[in-house]
């Protein structure tokens, strides 16, 4: 149980703000975005943190970051992978690592902030 006295289970807790205050990792979900539009990274971060989730980002370039992508997938709770701006290699590796570590992975058609907001809202 975290310091906010809420029971912790596998469900998302949107109304729990204790993570940033007490350092508790049970209330906060880590969401990784693989790829997307680099110029929108700040907006992705703001969106995810507005739900009190932890933001993680990998640019999707797998030639220089395969090990980094695997480590990030391993740490994340949910992985979002936009299809409209990622290579087949990035999508394939993301899928492979998600299966390997049994992670929730959502491939989305668009990298737009509104689309990601809908996906996050549906996941909650």
Describe the structure.
- The chain is an alpha/beta fold.
- The chain has one domain: NAD(P)-binding Rossmann-like Domain (Rossmann fold), CATH 3.40.50.
- 40% of the residues lie in helices and 16% in strands.
- The chain has a four-stranded parallel sheet, sandwiched between helices.
- Helix 2 runs parallel beside helix 5.
- The N terminus is likely disordered.
CATH architecture: 3-Layer(aba) Sandwich
For the record, the CATH class is Alpha Beta
Rg, please?
14 Å
User: Could you give the distance between the termini?
Assistant: 20 Å
Overall tally of structural domains: 1
CATH topology category name? Rossmann fold
**What about the largest sheet?**
4 strands, parallel
Low-confidence stretches: 1-18
Kindly name the structural category: alpha/beta
Quote the average pLDDT. 81
Strand order of the largest sheet: 2-1-3-4
> Percent of residues in helical segments?
40-55%
InterPro entries: UCP020408
Organism: Desulfonauticus submarinus
Protein name: DUF2325 domain-containing protein
Family: Belongs to the UPF0751 family.
